[in-house]
Amino acid sequence: MSVATLGVWRARYELRTYFRSADTLFFTFLFPVVMLALFSTIFGADGDFQPAPGVPALPVAQIYLPGLMAAGLLLSGFQNLAIDIAIERTEGTLKRLGGTPLSPVSYFLGKIGQVLATGVLQAALLLGVAALVFGVELPRDAAAWGTFAWVFVLGITTSALLGIALSSLPRTGKSATAVVVPIALVLQFISGVYLFFWQLPEWLQNIASIFPLAWMARGMRAVFLPEEYAALEPTGEWDLGWVVLALAAWLVVGLVLSRLTFRWIRRDA
Fold first, then answer.
1. What is the greatest pairwise CA distance in the chain?
2. Quick check: pTM over 0.85?
3. Is the pLDDT of residue 2 over 90?
4. Alpha-carbon distance 58 to 63, whole Å?
5. Which is it for the CA torsion 240, 117, 208, 198, positive or negative?
């Protein structure tokens, strides 16, 4: 079979495995939805919220939706794959796959295919809950959904490749969670997921802007928040051109690191 055919076959297998894992489903697939419900219930009891003067008041769910959408991309790609591949390496699954016709490229395609499929389902669920349960008014123009599409594809692919690259860092599957989860958690706090990005100190905004999650969240804010909210960004604009460049650069970094660091077994094993 061709590399692409093997990749599709592997993606089907990965999807079946993913949906059979209860902890993976909760901590990567359902987690953004749960957090949206919590924030909306806790902070939205008094009605619409105005986070800063000069911007329209919105439902709390709408203000948190962009950041949680970006966090979903990070969790599905970066966190999920980094932990999952590290465990597969420790358990010997990768060693066994290395003795089959499955190439690293087909393996990558399978993982990324699984992440794309689950990411689409997660985004649809998150949007459905936001609109139907919490009254968020979703964009009505094609341009906004076009922006959503390219931010989503670039963001989740970049996250997946960086997750594959990071999977080589934990020495064992047991230590993978301790290595990966704190990184993902810190990135979420400094990138505008749980805290409003415009309220963070400038130096912390600058640090967050080095990493892709801050750009994913900015792109999602451009989709789901009114134009007046662009004034709260560091430059006073959405800067979608810079979002493209930043995510594309990290995608290349993730691709190169994945290919350089990936091994069916650890070198020091």
1. 62
2. yes
3. no
4. 7
5. positive
